[in-house]
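Key result, reporting period 2: structure in, sequence out.
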């Protein structure tokens, strides 16, 4: 199938899956084939607590190994820390985080990846909080080798649509709703919601949307047209609404998550969902709408303590990983076993961490990390 046609069809189904979660398994199956992988999933990890779970998957990962990963091997995965510091939307493969020869010597590879004949993983962050990350993961079989530039390019084409779909799906929380019933359920959404045509004219708004317009702190209406108080955001909305009329693929990265600042200093974020393709077309047709705009107050998102430590002392992901392991696990031999790397490698990274942080003993590292801990944490 021609890539453009395949991408267009897949993009449309990604947005439909945001409203009908039963579609995710098929979408992820087609995603792995589009990228050239063995399996794919939407999942989350907590980079500090070293735990996580799968939202949706194509069921190609053995359930036994999936359970093992989240119960045991997530703590040994050498890529977690590096993935957490990745740029949202940019695919990160194993060799981007750790030299591949070194990766093959880890316990994680020998005990979890190799038995499944998995050679590589490409993860793309879709959203990130202070400690956790939601991501699209695609895994490649040994017979297909490592992910190459072409695979990364294809992942980049999909990521904006996965991001928008995941954020909107979480926002409206339609866990059991059918996409066909969207037009009947929009008014029950807690966030501000506006249905607009390609020119941005408001054809419908829910109660929360009307409240936002009445307050006029972040949005307002100009002769029936929805407008953001911030000129830059307003131009983004206008472009996204116009592009929505041309289908899912046209909107691309426009308005995945648009930050908005209210007059009182409150922060909001907005997302645009096209209503001109797939099952969503029925909702759009009901209102002669090209797109739906969702607006909610932004949640507080402070950097995590490890992220602050890494930025403050310019630590590499591996140096940070060893530093945190020394604080949590103990001495060099124990850290080497836990991380699945040689003691000499631990000593090398630990020495650099000592030098950059101005410490010389494990007790000083513990004190340093404790000093960066969130005083509001339980």
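The corresponding designed sequence is given below.
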């Amino acid at each position: 199938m021609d890539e453009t046609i395949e991408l267009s069809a897949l993009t449309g189904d990604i947005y439909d899956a945001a409203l009908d979660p039963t579609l995710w398994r098929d979408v992820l199956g087609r995603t792995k084939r589009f990228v050239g992988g063995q399996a794919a999933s939407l999942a989350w990890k907590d980079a500090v607590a070293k735990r996580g779970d799968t939202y949706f998957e194509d069921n190609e990962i053995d359930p036994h190994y999936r359970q093992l990963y989240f119960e045991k091997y997530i703590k040994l995965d050498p890529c977690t820390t590096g993935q957490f510091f990745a740029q949202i939307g940019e695919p990160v493969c194993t060799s981007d985080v750790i030299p591949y020869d070194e990766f093959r010597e880890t316990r994680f590879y020998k005990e979890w990846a190799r038995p499944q004949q998995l050679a590589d993983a490409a993860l793309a962050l879709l959203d990130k909080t202070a400690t956790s990350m939601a991501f699209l993961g695609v895994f490649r079989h040994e017979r297909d080798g490592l992910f190459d530039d072409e695979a990364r390019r294809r992942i980049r084409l999909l990521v904006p649509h996965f991001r928008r779909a995941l954020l909107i799906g979480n926002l409206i929380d339609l866990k059991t709703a059918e996409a066909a019933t969207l037009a009947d359920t929009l008014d029950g959404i807690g966030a501000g919601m506006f249905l607009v045509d390609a020119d941005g004219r408001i054809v419908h708004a829910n109660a929360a949307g009307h409240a936002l317009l009445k307050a006029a702190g972040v949005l307002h209406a100009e002769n029936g047209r929805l407008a953001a108080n911030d000129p830059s955001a307003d131009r983004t909305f206008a472009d996204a609404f116009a592009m929505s009329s041309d289908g899912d693929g046209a909107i691309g990265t426009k308005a995945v998550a648009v930050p908005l600042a209210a007059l009182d200093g409150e922060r909001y974020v907005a997302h645009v969902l096209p209503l001109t393709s797939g099952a969503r077309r029925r909702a759009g047709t009901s209102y002669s709408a090209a797109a739906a705009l969702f607006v909610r107050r932004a949640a507080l998102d402070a950097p995590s303590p490890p992220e602050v430590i890494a930025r403050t002392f310019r630590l590499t992901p591996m140096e940070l990983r060893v530093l945190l392991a020394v604080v949590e696990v103990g001495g060099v031999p124990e850290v080497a076993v836990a991380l699945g790397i040689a003691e000499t490698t631990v000593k090398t990274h630990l020495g650099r961490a000592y030098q950059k942080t101005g410490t010389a003993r494990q007790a000083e590292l513990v004190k340093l990390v404790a000093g960066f801990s969130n005083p509001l944490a339980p």
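Confidence is low (pLDDT under 50) at residues 174-180, 374-378. The chain has three domains: 3-172, 179-297, 305-371. This case is discussed further under Risks and Mitigation.
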